[in-house]
Amino acid sequence: MGLLERLRKEWFIVGIVLVIAVARLEPAVGVKGGPLKPEITITYIAVSAIFFNSGLSLKTEELTSALMHVKLHLFVQIFTLVFFPTAIWLFLQLLSITPINEWLLKGLQTVGCMPPPVSSAVILTKAVGGNEAAAIFNSAFGSFLLGSSSSVPFTSIFSQLFMTVVVPLIIGQIVRRYIKDWLERKKPPFGTISSCVLLMIIYTTFCDTFANPNIDLDKFSLILIVFIIFSVQMSFMFLTFLFSTRVVKSQSITAIPHPLKKMDLHRCH
Q1: Which of 2, 48, 74, 132 is least surrounded, with the fewest CB atoms within 10 Å of its CB?
Q2: What is the pTM of this model?
């Protein structure tokens, strides 16, 4: 595979690097209150566009089926809101004795206690061919749970999620009914569109970060924390994959008729 083909295939990763670099060069463009007005265009319009896009691309039966996966929802919420924050807290106790900037560690602890953002959770799940409908439900539900236990007014969180997630999703489903045949015939690049919107969100987020004059971080801490985040993500992804595949395998073995189980066990011996 040539370099150009590889770059075309991994265009989203390349895009992330580019938007961060652009944000570093000129953060004033995408900062809150700047020309792009991200407090409106990103917080409301971009996020709504992502879920309108999901409403168009998802079949209604997929959304209905996703709501019935109770075991999946329990696993995701317990893993996200209990297991992961606890594991991160224990890990940070070890990192606290290192020279890493304490505010980076506090930020990592805060992020570790939060549910995945509804926009990126849905887009990244779509990108790897996962259950997009389940991702929408669990990311939104996790945000509702977090809002109900935080100092931020629950009505504020509920209204924003309702207007930027639920309403666009329902409108997308309604529009899909009228243009279903056209969608199935043309197959628009829903994943690419959502990924481009996510790049805009990443860009404005880093514009805010680089525009903050109070940030004083040494490069060693910053590089090290990036490596730690990458390692933690890969480790937990592997752990989740190992656990889920083992459950599937055990269920498959349980479903085998009794004589066949004996035969397989005899062969193993």
Answers
A1: 2
A2: 0.73
